[in-house]
Automatic annotation (TrEMBL):
Keyword Cell membrane in record: yes
Domain of life: Bacteria
Cellular localization per UniProt: Cell membrane
Gene Ontology molecular functions: transmembrane transporter activity
A single GO cellular-component term on record: plasma membrane
Transmembrane segments: 12-36, 42-64, 85-110, 122-141, 153-172, 184-203, 224-252, 272-292, 318-339, 345-365, 372-391, 397-416
Record's bilayer topology term: Multi-pass membrane protein
Pfam families membership: AA_permease_2 (PF13520)
Organism this protein belongs to: Christiangramia fulva
Predominant cellular place of this UniProt entry's protein: membrane
UniProt entry keywords in alphabetical sequence: Cell membrane, Membrane, Transmembrane, Transmembrane helix
Source species taxonomy: Bacteria, Pseudomonadati, Bacteroidota, Flavobacteriia, Flavobacteriales
The name this protein goes by in its record: Amino acid permease
């Protein structure tokens, strides 16, 4: 168990901004059109349902991070309860989730930037490749996360989203929520929640930086919980306001750039420019943060012999092999993948991860507060089943590929790591 580091550089304003930014950084830009297509006028409720799971999971993450007093997130939590094998498998699944998430963000970056100057689908792909190449290069050079820049991007991003939601509410017209589409039943909201859960995953990246937080025992829980609740309100408000501006059909038909469409519909070119800038900065920052955290997680897991030694290699303390491999995989998926499939696949992985963290946290949450973890476990399980049934119907091939990879990870990883371990023993001899 690590030592509590109270001399970190991140105070509560930075922790709040980074937690909120980790979620909003790419989530709403990619998720709104997807959830409106599924839930229609109940899209706001989908974000609330997902948010409840995220809030309970955030509570569990904080309880465990403060208990173990070290960075590492779900991998560390499992390792500390002597579940190294499960920790290794989960870390592989998590890395797959981060690759999918970066692919979603790169996809969104390319489409928002291209849309602003009427670019073709090829231009969108080139923009996605360009931002991934640039951020891979920056990470390889050791130029990664500047907290002041990140906080500035988060602040501007939140201002743009709040402004869009407020303008939407000023143009109140509930007919727009179903314009051009068939109204959805209320029970479509859990289906929508399942489809876009990855929009909330970003807060847990902060648990990888536990050692950098000033007095985490005191500030981590209230700060992250406030950030999650704030983001739930932002998502629900934007889900109503943006659709009221552009109409449901426009949001769905141009789901790759739904917020720019909404801003342009009421403010014209200035709205398009503002929302495009917010989107490209937010998604780029989210890619950078996720690439940095996931590559360092790869090295940490490899150091514990739960990933091949390939991931241990560093140059000037930069895990360059992990950065290159994860970055290339994300780039390929951003170019060839479909937005809905990428979002839903990532959502499934994070639902599983957060469920496991909630289960672990039951050991350490004080009596009388365990209901919070149970809430996340129960709602998360229902939403996960809904998502599986949905993918079986609308994307059986993608689901089959994902389940096959998960099967390989769970069953094939121990054999693979045993092989690397035996090779290492022979080399040592």
């Amino acid at each position: 168990m690590g030592k509590n580091n109270s001399s970190g550089s991140l105070g509560w304003p930075a922790v709040w901004a980074l937690a909120a930014g980790g979620m909003v950084g790419g989530g709403i830009y990619t998720a709104l059109g997807v959830v409106v297509a599924v839930s229609g006028q109940w899209a706001w409720l989908s974000f609330v349902i997902s948010g409840i799971i995220a809030a309970s999971s955030a509570y569990s993450y904080v309880v465990l991070a403060n208990h173990y007093k070290e960075s590492g997130g779900a991998f560390t939590f499992l390792r500390e309860i002597n579940k190294e094998g499960i920790a290794g498998s989960l870390s592989w699944l998590l890395l797959m989730g981060y690759v999918l998430t970066m692919a979603v963000y790169a996809f969104a970056f390319g489409h928002y930037l291209s849309f602003s100057f009427n670019g073709s689908p090829m231009i969108s792909r080139l923009c996605a490749v360009g931002i991934m190449a640039a951020l891979i290069s920056l990470n390889l050079a050791g130029v990664t996360k500047t907290k002041k820049v990140e906080i500035a991007i988060v602040s501007l991003n939140l201002i743009a989203l709040i402004g869009l939601a407020v303008i939407g509410f000023l143009h109140w017209d509930t007919v727009k929520l179903v314009s051009g589409i068939e109204p959805r039943a209320w029970w479509s909201a859990p289906i929508g929640a399942a489809s876009i859960f990855m929009a909330y995953e970003g807060f847990q990246l902060l648990t990888y930086e536990y050692d950098e937080i000033k007095n985490p025992k005191k500030i981590l829980k209230p700060t992250i919980m406030l950030a999650v609740f704030f983001v739930i309100l932002i998502y629900a408000a934007v889900a109503i306001g943006a659709v009221m501006l552009a109409g449901a059909l426009a949001i769905i038909s141009q789901k790759q750039v739904s917020l720019s469409v909404a801003a342009q519909s009421v403010l014209g070119t200035p709205g398009l420019v503002i929302m495009t800038l917010a989107a490209v900065f937010a998604t780029a920052a989210a890619i950078n943060s996720t690439l940095f955290s996931s590559s360092n997680l790869s090295k940490r897991v490899a150091d514990d012999n739960e990933l091949p030694p390939f991931f241990k290699k560093t140059h000037n303390n930069v895990p360059y092999r992990a950065i290159i491999l994860l970055g290339i995989m994300s780039t390929v998926l951003a170019v060839i993948g479909k937005l809905s499939s990428l979002v839903e696949a990532a959502s499934m992985i994070f639902l599983i991860t957060f469920g496991i963290v909630n289960i672990i946290a039951l050991r350490y949450i004080k009596k009388g507060w365990k209901w919070i973890a149970w809430l996340g476990i129960s709602i998360g399980a229902v939403v996960l089943i809904v998502l599986l049934l949905r993918l079986m119907t609308v994307a059986p091939i993608q689901l089959g590929i994902l389940l096959f990879l998960a099967f390989l990870i769970i069953l094939g990883r121990p054999a693979l790591m045993k092989r690397f371990s035996s090779k290492k023993s022979k080399n040592d001899n």
